[in-house]
Amino acid sequence: MKYAHSLCASRFTRLLVVAGVATALGGPLASCRVEDPAPDLIQPATTKPSYAPNEDDQMWAVIEQFSAFNDPMLPTLTARQARMTHSVTDAVNALLAKNNKTPAAPSLTISQRVLPAPSPNTYSSAPDGVPVRIYTPASSNTTNLAADGTRPAIVYYHGGGWVIGSLMVYEPSAKALADRTGAIVFSVDYRLASETMNKFPAAHEDAYAAYKYVRDNAAALKVNPAKIAVAGESAGGNMAAAVCILARERNYALPIHELLVYPVADNNLNTASYQQYANAVPLNRANIVYFTGLYFNTAADGDNRLISLVDVADLKGLPTTTIIAAEIDPLQTEGQSLRDKLTAAGVSVDYTLYPGTTHEFFGTYAVVPLANDAQDIIEESSVSAYNDKLGFCRLRVQLAHALHKAS
């Protein structure tokens, strides 16, 4: 029952990730449901790695498949070649196909558009605009749907070390956030760095430009401008926090909430988790060195306030924050440090560490039950029902997963 204790202790009085975002966005969430914790789970075939002997079974099955692609190590590739390698999402899809599983698709309208560059383009965001993919919940999804037809919004930034990653690779996360919060999700296709192009702070400025455009044009986008959150994974989590910092510095309205999923928050590659998980899969120290070497103009960029959130940035006045952390992740320590620094700065923080999971677990919910838990375990209900039932729902789900882990 070790899993139940560690997870319950960190979350018992706090909201789950989507609950945290949706509460900040201000609308109804859910009466609870508890899915069968082990209906037909995909099992791994090999022994777990020595650096993570307690890795979650389904998480390890995903990492097994990811490793089976046998792609070249990223540091041996050009940026363009690196973008052609397989992703954890590819591993999930391969496992689903091998096991003849077809998860139900959420009811969403998906569209794409290019958000035009501001004029004047003071902060040098992409001169030809920033593409976004927009996920709009179906009208039948009344969670957070206002009487005037508007919804909250989440401006979402994918991961990939500012070098790889794409809207498609991270689409599972964007879809789940839209479906389970009832918010319109704008997934931002920011510029990616290469050997000679799109160096820091190009991606960060694209991230800010996208947030500002959504807020400035909220009426046309059918978004409530007072209920816009930012969210991101890994490098995207870093940019979500950076957008809040930039908005404050530029005297612009801040997001109502920031969801940071295993964010890059420090420039220190010698933390406890970097040492313990230096060779972890899918993210390791060598990959981080590779990514930052391509994105940074010089090593000094790593000490910029937008990168080193925990020891350079002024975090006062930032919005309420949800941090989701993976255990088997070089970034685990800096996520904890960011939680502590935000708390010290007076920011309300909900932090959850998911035991047995790796970097990139957030979008693996079709295979990994813990990722489904992190995404959202709460269905639609009224605000009063949500407030009354949340603790009971979460306890039931935690016990269900604990019984599965103990069996």
Question: If you average the pLDDT, what whole number results?
Answer: 87
Distance between the termini: 10 Å
Q: Which architecture per CATH?
A: 3-Layer(aba) Sandwich
Number of strands: 8
Strand order in space, largest sheet: 1-2-4-3-5-6-7-8
Largest sheet: 8 strands, mixed
Structural class: alpha/beta
Helix content: 25-40%
Radius of gyration: 20 Å
**The CATH topology:** Rossmann fold
Give the strand content: 15-25%
CATH superfamily descriptor: Alpha/Beta hydrolase fold, catalytic domain
By DSSP (H or I, 4+ residues per run), the number of helices equals 14
Account of the protein in words:
By secondary structure, the protein is of the alpha/beta class. The protein has one domain (2-406): Alpha/Beta hydrolase fold, catalytic domain (Rossmann fold). Helix content is 37%, strand content 15%. It has helices at residues 2-11, 17-25, 57-68, 79-82, 88-98, 171-181, 202-216, 218-221, 235-249, 272-276, 285-295, 332-344, 369-375, 383-406; strands at 108-115, 130-137, 151-157, 184-188, 223-233, 257-261, 320-328, 349-358. An 8-stranded mixed beta sheet has the order 1-2-4-3-5-6-7-8, with helices on both faces. Helix 6 (171-181) links the parallel strand 3 and strand 4. Helix 3 (57-68) packs across helix 5 (88-98). The longest helix has 24 residues, at 383-406. The N and C termini lie close together (10 Å).
